Amino acid sequence: MSIEPVVILHILRTLRNVTPPMWLTGGVAVDFLVGRWTRPHKDLDLVTFTKHRGQLELELGARGFALAHDEVWTTRWAVPGRRGADLELVFVQPASPQTGVLVVPATDPAHGRDRRYPLPAGYLDPRRYRELDGVRFRTCSAEGEWLNRLVSTDLVPGRKPEPKLQHDIQLLQPLIPEPRQRELLRSHPTAAGSDQTQP
To answer: How many CB atoms lie within 10 A of CB 64?
Structure first.
């Protein structure tokens, strides 16, 4: 089941005045980065800092969102009045410059050991906003979203490269200069071994 763009935009309007900063990530972020809707989305993904978790739980609850699933590094929320709509928050530790580190603990049932995923510099720039259909929202960097798709099979055990990931990579790749692509690939050994960078 996918969420219609009008519902995604409604959710983002509802979240605009939430106090802690949040950034679009995932497929919706790609659409905001390229400036158009390019594919269906099954949920809405946002990144924020771990230190804001308690405040976000209060503010989302006050706006009618209901906590549906709670893990150490991610939570899923049911969207008020929108059956089947899903909001996922991913929590990262702050890092410099303007980025974060995703920490997946050994207690996570899918992993079994501590893992740390440093995000690229500038991934969480608080000044980076993108607009789509009249809604403006903070958005993660194209570089980080591109790299995330190259390493996603490492983050989620058993995950296979999906057509939607290849679709996103092809949309993001032109936004990143080739020398920067090579630099990002060298900085991440899992991504360097990927063959998904070719259109």
So the answer is: 12
Percent of the chain with pLDDT over 70: 87
**What are the tens digits of pLDDT across the range 110-119?**
655 678 889 9
The position carrying tokens 């050991």 is 113
Domains of the chain: residue spans and CATH: 5-141 (3.30.460.40)
Supply the pLDDT for residue 105.
84
Residue 79 to residue 67: CA distance in whole angstroms? 9
In the block, residue with structure tokens 């410059």 = 97
Contact 65, 56 (CB under 8 A): no
Tell me if 122 sits within 8 A of 97, measured CB to CB. yes
Residue 142's H or E segment, with its range, is helix 142-155
Q: Which residue's structure tokens are 């924020």?
A: 48
Region 9-25: mean pLDDT is: 96
Please say whether the beta carbons of 118 and 148 come within 8 A.
no
Contact (CB, 8 A) for 34 and 146: no
**Which string of DSSP letters, residue by residue, matches 68-80?**
EEE-SSEEEEEPT
Name the pTM for this structure: 0.89
Q: Measuring CA to CA, which residue among 44, 10, 12 is closest to residue 26?
A: 44
Which two three-digit tokens encode residue 11? 């959710």
Residue 155: predicted pLDDT: 58
| pLDDT bucket at 153, cuts 50 / 70 / 90 | low
